[in-house]
Amino acid sequence: MRQISISDLPTxxxxxxxxYHGGGQLLHSKGDVLTPENFDLMRKAGIQSVYELGPExxxxxxxxxxxxxxxxxxxxxxxxxxTHPLSNDKGVLLLERGVKVTExxxxxxxxxxxxxxxxxxxPEERRLHEADAYLSMVRRELVKPFKLExxxxxxxxxxxxxxxxSLATIERQLQDLDLNVKPSGAPLHKxxxxxxxxxxxxxxxxxxAFSVYQACLGQVEKMMHMLKENQSFSxxxxxxxxxxxxxxxxxxxxxxxxxxxxxxQRAYLPSHSTNTAILAMNIAxxxxxxxxxxxxxxxxxxxxxxxxLWVPEEIVNKKGRLTPYERIxxxxxxxxxxxxxxxxxxxxxxxxxxxxxxxxxxxGGGYPRRNSEEKIHRFSKMITVADIYEALTKxxxxxxxxxxxxxxxxxxxxxxxxxxxxxxxxxxxxxxSLYPIGSFVRLSDExxxxxxxxxxxxxxxxxVRVMWQGDQPLPAHQVVDLYRxxxxxxxxxxxxxxxxxxxxxxx
Length: 507
Prior knowledge:
By secondary structure, the protein is α+β, with helices and mostly antiparallel strands. It has helices at 36-45, 59-67, 103-111, 128-141, 167-176, 203-228, 236-259, 268-286, 291-303, 313-316, 324-331, 333-341, 351-356, 378-392, 404-416, 422-432, 500-503; strands at 2-5, 19-20, 26-28, 49-52, 68-72, 86-87, 93-95, 116-120, 233-234, 344-345, 439-443, 447-453, 463-469, 472-481, 490-496. It has 4 domains: 2-60 and 127-141, no CATH class; 69-120, Molybdopterin biosynthesis moea protein, domain 2 (Alpha-Beta Complex); 161-432, Orthogonal Bundle (Hypothetical protein af1432); 439-503. The protein is built from 17 helices and 15 strands. Helix 1 (36-45) packs antiparallel against helix 4 (128-141), helix 7 (236-259) packs across helix 9 and helix 8 (268-286) packs across helix 14 (378-392).
């Protein structure tokens, strides 16, 4: 890692390494080209230097340095009361705010080898306003406006004949393609509208966004019906739905994520497929993928479970444990999906493989081929995470729905068991938080509220709109940013906002 004065940055040269603000915010990714206009905007924003991180540099260590200030243990004044919580260099909380420093506490810390503890620096101390101002000016003055209607695949990116959708083609792709697809092109996350997460949206805003979401559900339901009836249709129908989702993601990703909490309004498959697409496209966006790549992931996610249409309904809706025979029938649905995809004209070339592999697991324990990590497409891994989490948060004939927090915890356990992709789950947490957007939580001061936004720097401390003190409604709702306000924390994850009435509360 090296600090570079902006006057020493090269002009017109492709960056070999990302550049960060001293507060820890990413300013430019590897592959960006800086222009004189960039330098002018940096000066306007008050940025005097940046940090370049090479492949040998530890990003998490750098970000910890940006967020934290060392407090020497020897300087802790006996008898004083801590005004900030103090952690060790791993971020583990050792002393709460309000603790009175005693000789025993100092002696205990020193005997355990602690020379320094660390306090969280405030956004003002980190001068995050500089990075925010710069990025805002770049989007406003230098970035070519993103046009959703221009987001389409070229003919060479599309499957030309249904004969090209086959298990043999998938086998060739597994042998010939680089399955670990990296982000390529301008990241979609740079197009996201940076609106105030704490704002209250108008009824018109809510109604417009929800009508688009419901229209997508309706279109997916029609598409599923056509596939079940063995009818053909154009892949542009799928693409149009994915573009609508990308439009909502750009406009208001928090509200879009909140919609996925709603109890399934239609049949299981259309609702699950739509929500899985929303979550997977958010994961891809958080990971830095471009709009065309996110669009392709949307195709795969919307279609990932179409093979279930050919699984007998008595198995799909069975309330008890499946028999070995029934499990085999379910595990056939990726094969059914490949056959059904032939009815969709003009799909992106990678979609059949992506759909085929969503139910594989990194440890080789999935289906249909029991492929392991290096033989699973990167886009399938993202959809897998979305598919698992979305299914857990909804009721099934054989179990009740999990709370969003419990579903996220179970998803993390699958990471620890090396069944699903850790990077995808980390990106998911970055956008959704450990206490997912749209879920209700209880705070340590007995206030109850709804999670309305994630803090990308600490997924355990989201933004919460508090609406009750205990069981009593508050006259005025207040937004608590748990990342900035370290005096309170979440003590309990509560129910999901799964009704249309509760869905809009807090937004």
